[in-house]
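Reproducibility note. Readers wishing to regenerate the assembly model reported in the main text can use the exact inputs given here. Chain order matters: entities are listed in the order in which they were concatenated for prediction.
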Amino acid sequence: MPVKRFDKTPMPTQVAGMRAHNFLEVNEGYTEDHARFEAERCLRCQDPICVTGCPVGVPIPQFIHAVALGDMQGASRLLRSANPLASVCGRVCAQENQCEARCSLAGRFNPVAIGHLERFVADWERTQTQEAKPQITRTEKVAIIGSGPAGLVCAGELARLGYSVTIYEALHAPGGVLRYGIPEFRLPKDILDWEISLLTDLGVKIECNVIIGRTLSLDQLTTKMGYSAVFIGTGAGLPQFLGIPGENLVGVYSANEYLTRVNLMRGYSADADTPVAHGESVAIVGAGNTAMDAVRTAMRMGASKAMVIYRRSETEMSAREEEYHHAKEEGVEFHWLTNPLEIIDDGNGRVSGLRCQRMVLGEPDKSGRARPVAIPDSEFVIPVDNVVLAIGTTPNPMLTRTTAGLSTTPSGCIVADERTGSTSRSLVFAGGDAVSGAATVILAAGAGKRAASAIHETLNPG
Amino acid sequence: MSRIVETRQLTPVTKMFVLDNRLIAESAQAGQFVMLRVHKDGERIPVTIADYDREAGTITIVVQAVGATTRRVDALDVGDEILDVAGPLGSPIEIPDGGAHVVGVGGGFGAAALLCLMREIHAKGNTATAIVGARNQDLLIMTNELLGVADNVEICTDDGSAGMKGFVTQRLAQLIEGQGPGRPDRVIAIGPMAMMRAIAATTKESGIKTMVSMDPLMVDGTGMCGGCRVIVDGKSQFACIDGPVFDAQLVDFDLAMRRNKAYAEQEKAAAERLACATAEAV
Ligand SMILES: Cc1cc2nc3c(=O)[nH]c(=O)nc-3n(C[C@H](O)[C@H](O)[C@H](O)COP(=O)(O)OP(=O)(O)OC[C@H]3O[C@@H](n4cnc5c(N)ncnc54)[C@H](O)[C@@H]3O)c2cc1C
Ligand SMILES: Cc1cc2nc3c(=O)[nH]c(=O)nc-3n(C[C@H](O)[C@H](O)[C@H](O)COP(=O)(O)OP(=O)(O)OC[C@H]3O[C@@H](n4cnc5c(N)ncnc54)[C@H](O)[C@@H]3O)c2cc1C
Ligand code: SF4
Ligand code: SF4
Ligand code: FES
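Running the prediction on these inputs yields the following C-alpha cells for the assembly.
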C-alpha cells in the first residue's frame, strides 16, 4: 500500500479575485490523477464508520476503492445505487458534519475527501453514454408533487421499478431549490439538467406550471386521473421575515426572492427581463447556506461591500464549511454578534442603512446554542443599499391549505412516517423539507428514496 | 404552453386574449390570476383571469401594455403560443351565498376581471352590479359582455361621453345613498391602486364590507419569494397566496404603491431596449 498522506488533495478552484465577479463554478473538480491519489488515502476500514454519517448509506469505501483502481464505471454504479443525486450531493452536502466527520482519518489527519470523490465520479459518468433504459413495465401510475430533490429521487426510484411516473411542478422549470436557490457558481444548472434528463430518459414525465391544490386537486389525482399513489415533495419555500421596522422598504429582499431573481430568472444575464437590485453595499442577515449563497451572489452582482450580519457567533453558524471559507476568500465581511433592529429609510421609501446592536453569548437556549444577549447602548448604523433576509423558511402552504384530510403540525409541516413517508391519507406519501422543515438536499433525497420503496411495497407487496 | 385562439384590441393599449388551457379553465374562479412568461429570458407576470369557459377549455385575459413584458404579450396574435401559463393562483373571491347586492367596481383591465365575478355573483342568487369607468367612451372595455352577465351595469366617463359624467367613486357614493340599483351589501374593487384606495375611502363611513384586489410586483406567484407582501391590518401578507383580495379598510395603500415603483428605472430601460430591438427588426 502506498504511504498515506495527511492532507486532503486540494480541490482546484477559480482564483478568488476572479471568481468573485463571475458566475462560473468555483470548484473546478478533481482530475483523474487527483481522484486516484485521494482515493488511495482511504483505509478501506473493515467497519467503515463514515457510512453511518451518510443519510443514504453510500457504500463509501467500495466506491472509493473502485476509483483507486481506475474502475470509474464500477464506482459510479456503486454510488448511484445508493445516491441518485450524486453529482449534486458531491457538491452541496455538508460533508464536514456527515460522512467526512466520521471518517477514521478525521481525528488526527484530514478526512478522506468523500464529497470531492463523489463529485468526480458523477462528473465522469456525465461524460459517458448512458446504459440502456429500463422500460415502464407496470400498470400503476404514480404522481409526484414538486420537483426538488425529494420528488426527483422518488420519481427516479419508481421509474427504475417500472412505474409510470409524472412529476407536477408549480414553477416553469424543475429542480426546486436546486434550480431557484443554489447559485450557478456552486451547482451549475447544466448538472441539474443532466440529472433531470436521466429521469426523463427513464420515461418520467415532468409537467411544469401545474400547481397541485390549485390547477389540479390531490383528489383529482387519486380519483379521476387514476394515480395509484402520490408523493408530496413540496419543500419549505415560504420565506420568513424578521418583523423589524423598515422591512418593506424598497431594496429589502427575502433570500428566496433575491436568489430567484438571479438564478431562476437569470438576473445575472443582460438578456433577462426580470430586474434585480445591484447595490454597492449589501447586507445579508443570517448565516446559513442560504445567507452564504446570497452574499456571494451580491458580490457577483457587483457589490463592492457584501456583508453577513449574524446575531450569534462564528461557532453557531450553520453554513457549510467550504462555503464560509470561499466567502471569506472572496472578500465577504462577517459581522458576528450583531443583531439588526431596524432597516433605515432614505426618506424616499428605499433602504439607506441597517441599525444594529452588539450582542454577547449567554446561556444555551432551546436549540442548545448559546443565546445571544444585547449589550446595552451598543447601537450603531451600517450604511447599505440592500438588505437580504436569510433567516429561514417554512413549508409552502399551497397544497396543505387546499387539501382536506392531510395532517400538518402547527408549523405547517406535513405529518409523515419517518420510515415510509406515509401520511394521514391512504396512498399519499410525503418527504423532504415539506415534512422536516428546511433541511438538506441529501435528507430530502433519502426521504424520496424511502417513500419510493414504501410505495412499491404498498402497491406490489411481496 | 397555451395557444391563443382569439384576440381583440379593446383600446390602443389594451388587448383581450382567449387562451386554450383546459386545466386552468376547469379550476379557475373569480379573483384568481395566472403567471405568464412569453420567452425564455422573460419575466413571470401576473394577469387576472377575466373569464373562463369550462366547456370550451379556454380562459380570457386582458392585458394592458405598460412595459416590456406586457408589450411582448400585446404583440402576440391568434395561433401564437404563450410559453408558460401557470394557475389559477391566489384565493378565489368569497361571494355571499345569495340575497345580497354585490357591487363590483372595475377600472382599466379591472373592468374585464368583473366578467366571471359578476356571473358567479349572479349564479349564487345575489344581485350583481358592475360599475365601470374610463376617461372617455373609447377607453371603456367589455361593457357589452358585462351587460350579458350582470344585473346592472353602471358606466362612468370623465368627460361624459358615455354613461354618467364623473368617477366610479361618485357613482358608488350615489348607490350607497340608495340611488340606482341601491345600497350595496358588499363592494369588490379591481383596478389601479389609486382607484382602489379611493373606493376604500368612499365606503369607509358606510361600514359596507369592501374588498380590493391588490396587484403588487410578483416573481413566482406561489408564496416562495415574499416580494408580493402587502401590509394588511399591520401584518405582512403574501398577495399571491393570502390574497390577492383583501379587506380594503385594512390595506396599507401608500406602502403598496411605493413598492410597485421599486424597479421604475430598470423597467424603463427594458422597455427602451425592447423598442430599439423592435425598431431594428422592422
Ligand atoms: C439558497 C439555499 C441554499 C441551500 N444550500 C444547501 C446546501 O448547500 N446543501 C444542502 O444539503 N442543502 C442546502 N439547502 C437546502 C436544500 O436545498 C433543501 O433542503 C432541499 O432542496 C429540499 O428539497 P425538497 O425536495 O424537499 O424541496 P424543494 O427543493 O423546496 O422543492 C419543492 C418543489 O415543489 C414545488 N411545489 C411546491 N408546492 C407545490 C404544489 N402545490 N404543486 C406543485 N409543485 C409545488 C416548488 O415549486 C419546488 O420546486 C439550501 C437551500 C437554499 C434555499
Ligand atoms: C394579481 C395581479 C393581477 C394582475 N392582473 C392584470 C391584468 O389582468 N391585466 C394587466 O394588464 N395587468 C395585470 N396586472 C399587472 C401586470 O402584472 C403588470 O402590468 C406587469 O407585470 C407589468 O410588466 P411589464 O414588464 O410590462 O411592465 P414593467 O416594465 O414591469 O412596468 C411598467 C409600469 O407598470 C407598473 N407596474 C409593474 N407591475 C405592476 C403591477 N403588478 N401592478 C401595477 N402596476 C405595475 C410599473 O410600476 C411601471 O410603472 C396584475 C398584477 C397582479 C399582481
Ligand atoms: S451523499 Fe453526502 S453524506 Fe452521503 S457520502 Fe455523499 S457527500 Fe457524504
Ligand atoms: S472511514 Fe474514512 S478511511 Fe475509513 S473507509 Fe471511510 S472514508 Fe475510508
Ligand atoms: S409572488 Fe413570490 S411570494 Fe408572492
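We highlight two features of this model. Chain B has a mean pLDDT of 91. The domain at 2-89 of chain B is CATH 2.40.30.10 (Elongation Factor Tu (Ef-tu); domain 3).
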